[in-house]
Amino acid sequence: MVPVVDALTSVLNWVALGAALWALVLVVLLRPPLPGRPDGWAYLGLLVLLELGLLAQAVVGFVNLATTDRDVEALTFGGYLLGALLVLPIAVFWALAERTRWGIAVLVIGCLVVPVLNLRLDQVWAAVPGV
Where are its TM segments located (predicted)? Predict the structure, then answer.
């Protein structure tokens, strides 16, 4: 993709991996990220920033998709963009609804899914037709 998008994607991947590591620590400590505690607000704030970055990535990705002359699987690319955008709110909702270790573990999985979807976005964008 465009170098600016590649830089944004790299930052989003590292932030998502850091958020996954933080959530893993929360799993071990059995501390759900409650909005009433300072560490809960900090973690949820990090996830909000990550979601805003994913929103920017989705906007730029759809603009690039609409203006490219490349042969890109538009439906697949758009699906991965929307999937990356929706996975975190679903994981946060689940973690706040279920205050057990498994609810927090969903945040780990949700944060790890973001880099995987970004990797697939890059693969779909760079795919050579007919290969």
Answer: 12-30, 42-65, 77-97, 104-121
CA pair distance 97, 93, nearest whole angstrom: 6
Question: What six digits make up the tokens of 54?
Answer: 């994913």
Structure tokens at 25: 């620590």
Q: Give me the count of residues in the chain.
A: 131
Q: Using alpha carbons only, how large is the chain's radius of gyration in Å?
A: 16
Q: Find how far residue 47's CA is from the centre of its chain.
A: 9
pLDDT of residue 7: 87
List the alpha helices (DSSP H) in the chain.
Answer: 3-29, 38-67, 74-97, 101-126
Q: Where are the domains of the chain?
A: 3-126
On whether the pTM is more than 0.85, the answer is: yes
